[in-house]
């Protein structure tokens, strides 16, 4: 049993069928493609940020590895029998503050998973001038023996106002 439709009805049915086909194509093909494209673009942007972060970390790692290699080379080129205590005492003699040493307290700490130990000396210099202190600190910091000042405290001298007292900790790695 066929339904007879006039021309206007046939056009209306064809337009409705075309609208349904267009709706189905848009709903199930075109819109999902756009959504997938947007999601992929977001994923690409996120991955590019991650890649940039990885590159920065890689550069930081390389720089740290270079510093570690340089430190190992410096430690290998140290004089045999080097000790922080004797270095500081000799430097005090060179800079003219040896007679102003109130005390020197050495200590060492083993480093986990390392053949090195941390050697530290706490030292007090009394009644010295600022240029003397600067010369001594400069000698420590510019040493090729990888010595660093960890803590520094300066106070006015008790006898003369232009003299100072200082307590500081110096550290280095030793084998």
Task: Provide key terms for this protein.
alpha+beta; Alpha-Beta Plaits; 4-stranded antiparallel sheet; 4 strands; rod-shaped; transmembrane; coiled coil; transmembrane helix
Largest sheet: 4 strands, antiparallel
CATH structural architecture of the largest domain: 2-Layer Sandwich
Strand content: 15-25%
Rg result: 38 Å
- Gross morphology: rod-shaped
> Strand arrangement, largest sheet?
1-2-4-3
> Count the strands?
4
Number of domains: 2
- Number of discrete helical segments: 3
Overall pLDDT, averaged?
Answer: 90
Give the termini separation: 103 Å
At the fold tier of CATH, the topology name of the largest domain is Alpha-Beta Plaits
What does it look like?
This is General secretion pathway protein M. Residues 47-74 form a coiled coil. It comes from Desulfosarcina alkanivorans. Keywords: Coiled coil, Membrane, Transmembrane, Transmembrane helix. The chain crosses the membrane at residues 12-34. The chain has 175 residues and is α+β, with helices and mostly antiparallel strands. It folds into two domains: 7-77; 84-174, Alpha-Beta Plaits (2-Layer Sandwich). The chain has three helices and four strands. It has helices at 7-76, 84-95, 130-141, and strands at 101-110, 117-128, 148-156, 164-174. A four-stranded antiparallel β-sheet has the order 1-2-4-3. Helix 2 packs across helix 3 (130-141). The mean pLDDT is 90.
């Amino acid at each position: 049993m066929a339904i007879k439709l006039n021309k206007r009805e046939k056009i209306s049915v064809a337009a409705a069928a075309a609208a349904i086909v267009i709706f189905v194509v848009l709903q199930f093909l075109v819109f999902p493609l756009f959504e997938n494209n947007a999601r992929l673009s977001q994923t690409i942007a996120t991955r590019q940020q991650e890649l940039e972060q990885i590159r920065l970390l890689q550069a930081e790692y390389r720089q740290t590895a270079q510093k570690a290699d340089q430190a190992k080379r410096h430690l290998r080129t140290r004089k045999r029998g080097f000790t922080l205590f004797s270095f500081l005492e000799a430097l005090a003699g060179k800079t003219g503050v040896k007679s102003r040493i109130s005390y020197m307290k050495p200590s060492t700490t083993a480093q986990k998973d390392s053949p090195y130990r941390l050697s530290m000396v706490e030292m007090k210099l009394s009644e010295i001038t600022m240029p003397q202190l600067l010369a001594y600190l400069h000698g420590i910091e510019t040493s090729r023996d990888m010595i660093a000042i960890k803590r520094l405290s300066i106070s006015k001298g008790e006898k003369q106002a232009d003299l100072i007292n200082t307590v500081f900790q110096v550290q280095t790695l030793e084998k």
